[in-house]
Every structure is written in C-alpha cells, then in structure tokens.
Amino acid sequence: MPMTIDDALLPGARNATGTYRYRIDDDRWWWSAGVYAILGLQPGEVVPTTQLLLAHRHPDDTRPTGGTLLEALAEGEPFSHLHRIVDAHGATRTVVVTGTAVRDDAGRVVEVTGDLVDVTASVAARSASDANRQISDAFSSRGRIEQAKGAVAIVLGLDPEEAFSLLCAASSLANVRVRDLADELVSCLADLDPRADRRALVSRILHLP
Questions:
Q1: Is the overall model pTM greater than 0.85, yes or no?
Q2: Domain count, the chain
Q3: Same domain? 206 vs 158
C-alpha cells in the first residue's frame, strides 16, 4: 500500500522529531534539540542559518531543500515535503518537513513554523518521489494532529516537540494511528464539561501515570 504520514508514525517507527521557527524579516532560525540531533549536531554547536540547512541537502536531490519554505513565504500555505539530507556525520537520512505560515495583523507572512521528522527507517524501501506524493496527499491529517499537539502542550505545560513525542509514544503503546489518537483527544476535549479536569482526561488518553 502507498505510504502516508500516518504510516511513518505507526508503532515501531520510533521517529526522531524536532521543531523549528523561521523569522522572515531578519532571516533568523530557531531549532529545537531534536532538529540539531537529526542533523547530527549538538544544540549550540552551530548557529542555525538558511545556508547551513541547505548545506545538508543530499547532493543527488535536484529540488533544493529550501524550496517548500520559499513557497510558504510566497503563498502562505501549509506544506509537507519529504527529502533526503546528509547529517554532520555523513549519514543519509530521509526526513519529512512540515510548515505553517504565521501572518501579522496586516496579513503579511512573517514567520514559518513546523516539524522535522526523521522517517529514514519507514521509507528505506521506497523511492523519495513516490513517498513524497503519498505524504502530500495525506497532509490533511496534520490539521487534527496539530490541534491535538497544541492541546497537549497547553494542558500539560509542555513545548510542542514534547507534546508531539507524547502523542507518538501513546499511539505506539495503544497500537493506533497518531491521527486516530488525535481525533479522540480533540473530540473528548471539545465535549468535556468546562468544570472537568482536562489534565486527567489528557493523561488517561495518552496513558500517562
């Protein structure tokens, strides 16, 4: 069957994840520890820049790594793209980059935020072009996952990367897709009595102690 983002996040995938932010006006990046790790770096070892990110693109890939980012800046549309990188140790990794544009009050795109997910093991037997098409088709599911990630972050007081890791771990434990778990979480929170304990609900759905 064709591979989707859900396939890459199925139990057993153990995907490394990271979060990034890119400010357009001053060409400034922020990477979480997970992004540094996927690139084979230590946090603080280098200053994140566009040039450094592009330097890690795989030499055999014709599409620039920054292409989808530039599209997001021009169009302001969410994106999902799969490509290969070469980390600081020379290892080739296959990663999914997702991004969402942030606009100011005037509607101008000022920032792009998103996730970097290492799906090397999940797509090892597939061509990058085929996997990229299927992942793009499945990107609609990211909306629900983003809602769930945000809810977990707020309720449990976590950063987005930690919240996403909890969702992935819970899906593995329960042997369900991340999207299905996200649907359950968001639906249950929406139906919850305002006086009820949201933390207890989230902890129960994520199988937290």
A1: no
A2: 2
A3: yes
